[in-house]
Write a structure and sequence with these properties.
Layout: E1 3-7, E2 10-15, E3 23-26, H1 36-47, E4 50-55
Parallel strand pairs: 3-4
Antiparallel strand pairs: 1-2, 2-4
């Protein structure tokens, strides 16, 4: 559902709802970084109308 973008050298997974977003949500990961579980959480937020962004705070700026 979402896509990975590079923002100022950091990878960010962005999931957009199919309708205009109600609000935005920042999804932060645990110690393992941005993984499929975090992407699914962001996708779930998008499925209920939120714009969700999940930055990779561990390996995002390799």
């Amino acid at each position: 559902m979402g896509e990975e973008l590079t923002v100022d050298g950091t990878t960010v997974y962005v999931a957009r709802p199919s309708t205009p977003p109600a609000a935005g949500v920042l999804v932060l990961h645990e110690v393992w970084g941005l993984n499929d579980d975090i992407r699914r959480i962001a996708d779930r937020f998008a499925s209920i109308g939120y714009l969700a962004a999940a930055p990779d705070l561990v390996d995002g700026g390799r």
